[in-house]
Write a structure and sequence with these properties.
The structure holds two protein chains of two kinds. By secondary structure, chain A is mostly helical. Chain A has one domain: Cytochrome Bc1 Complex, Chain D, domain 2, CATH 1.10.760. Chain A is built from five helices and two strands. In chain A, strands 1-2 form a two-stranded antiparallel sheet. In chain A, helix 2 packs across helix 4 and helix 3 packs across helix 4. Chain A is globular, with a radius of gyration of 15 Å. Chain B is of the alpha/beta class. Chain B has four domains: 31 residues, no CATH class; 149 residues, FAD/NAD(P)-binding domain (3-Layer(bba) Sandwich), CATH 3.50.50.60; 166 residues, Polyamine Oxidase, Chain A, domain 2 (Alpha-Beta Complex), CATH 3.90.660.10; 99 residues, de novo design (two linked rop proteins) (Up-down Bundle). In chain B, 34% of the residues lie in helices and 20% in strands. Chain B has a five-stranded parallel β-sheet, covered by helices on one side. In chain B, strands 12-11-22-23 form a four-stranded mixed β-sheet. In chain B, a hairpin with a 5-residue loop joins strand 16 and strand 17. Classes of the chains: A mainly alpha, B alpha/beta. At the A-B interface, helix 1, helix 2, strand 1 and strand 2 of A face helix 8, helix 10, strand 20 and helix 13 of B. Chain B: It catalyses: L-tryptophan + O2 = indole-3-acetamide + CO2 + H2O. Chain B: Its EC number is 1.13.12.3. Chain B: Keywords: Auxin biosynthesis.
Chain lengths: 136, 538
Amino acid sequence: MRGTIGIATVAALAIAATTALAQGTGDTSGHDPGAGGATGEAVYREVCQACHMPAGEGGTGAAAIPALAKNAKLADADWMVSTIVKGRGGMPTFNGMLSPDQIASVATYVRGHFGNAYAKPVTVDDVKRLTPEGEE
Amino acid sequence: MTDPVSSPATGGFVPSRRQLLTAIGKAGGAAALYHAMTAMGHAAPSQFNGPPKLSGAKKGATVIVLGAGLAGMLAAYELMKAGYKVKLLEYQHRPGGRNWTVRGGDVIQEIGGAVQKVGFSPGNYLNPGPWRIPYHHEAVLHYCQEFGVALEPFVQINHNGYVHSSKAFDGKPVRYGAVGTDFKGHVAELLAKAVNKGALDDTVSKEDKDKLLEAMKGWGILDKDMNYVKSLRTSSSRGYDRPPGGGVGGAPIPSEPYGLTDVLDPRMWMTNAFYFNNVMQTSMFQPVGGMDMIGKGFAKQLPGMITYNAKVTKIAQSDSGVTITYEDLSKGSAVKTASADYCVCTIPLTILSQIEVQASPEMVTAIKSVPYHSSCKVGLEMKRRFWEEDDKIYGGHSFTNQSISQLSYPSYGFFKKGPSVLLGAYAGGAAAYTFGGLTPEQRVEEALKQGSVFHPESYRKEFMNGTAVAWSRLPWIAACASSWNDDARKAHYQNLVKIDGRLVLAGEHASYIGAWMEAALLSSLDAVERLHKMAQAA
């Protein structure tokens, strides 16, 4: 399973590497080895907590970074997956940066932790269904 | 080239290139001129056509600019020159926005509470944001000249820098010059073999085959049998085991090329491809003393016009003007308002999307629809320039497939004794978030751990202190920069940049360039030109 995710990530990155500059992300790092996390928790630590903070508490500066802890909006799994895939507000598009496996895992993890208790797991099929055509 | 000359052959008048281009421009307009210039190899790589010549603002007309980054300050500067009464509101206590340099004693606060006090020695610095200016970012270069900001070369390509992949060369770094030479050597040999086997007969003419073989032989440094081998010729590009010297032992000893398998590692060719990106090509520049010299240069033109520590909470507009509500963070968040005829808003969309903006539904939707990305830079202060003294690397980069992505060596202070700061990580993509999720101390430790692969003897031994800037954790922006995708562009870009009532947005997010200072400036110039035109017509 781990190997499968690794290969999927490498493939996604190859695409990300070629499109990064075409999309005008500017003078940002030329190389990204990607997120290797195989579990929802690993992906959360590796990626999500950079903004949503270690306990999903979010943060406040000139604007607020939404808390994931006890977040009633997460009841709608499709909304959550769609947000991860497409980005929202200042949140990045994670389609291409994370594999469908990783997105499903981390969505399931967050919906079952930090004071959230939505039992139904998010599946890879859910992620694919909500990923814009031709962009996966 | 600008003077007309008589052609000795015909005795007739031969126009100079400039005269010809002017004539074409007059006859056919800008598009024809552009095509003619392209054909002559003169295509302008920039949309900058010199500073705008705005003038004659209506008496008493006022503009409020939100954000004193480069976009905001340029808007204020040009509108002020046109005759508007301009004031700016800025969230931070300094001008520049992402145009930012940190030095010893500076304090960096993060969302979540982490605080770093920069420990660099006097004269050393880190540019957490923009750090290099390509030669074709003409707007940036123009205003640097106009404001007297001294520029120096930024060393971009360094063939003596390292390239490292954990999956090639047993995880040992190799010099870019050597591996780059070997890459083209192997590829040239393989292509020559394919041609000679007739594999390309259906796509390449006989004549082109001969030219191609000759090119591969010369470009790849192949021998008479079209093989890429160890020789003094190949060593003259990739480097020698013993370089040529003088006197008795002057004779060089050639080096053995690396094998094809390792050379094909993606990190190797990606390095080569990287330098061919238009925005990564030389010449490149940096301001002497730190990138924030540009922001300071702009701010100097706007004396007393910037109100710092102002957190904008609402942008209201009516038929008669705009009213901005803000909290004065220096006075216990006292709520204040400021009014003007027009507003140029350069607040990053990560922040603006959470501020009440009275604008058309489509602009409000656009503001909320642009994804951003993050980035993380780590500056490491070392006791001495071991990369120069021991490795003979003067500026430029070393690349790796680890999450730090690269090291970059300072392009200033060459050969100086004493402490020096190198860039120890420039993490993008997912890695930017991985770094952002760590504490500043953990980021520095991770940078040290990974970067040691390049300089194992010295890295930890010479380390003094480090500063790690994770953009996703900065309270004033919570991200690095916009990262538009095709769908978002199609649906929202024009709605974002159009003038909406008395409000116009500017900044790198309102451009097709992305995270470069040039983006902020070109966006700003376009916005103020349109705004001025509208104000004159009103």
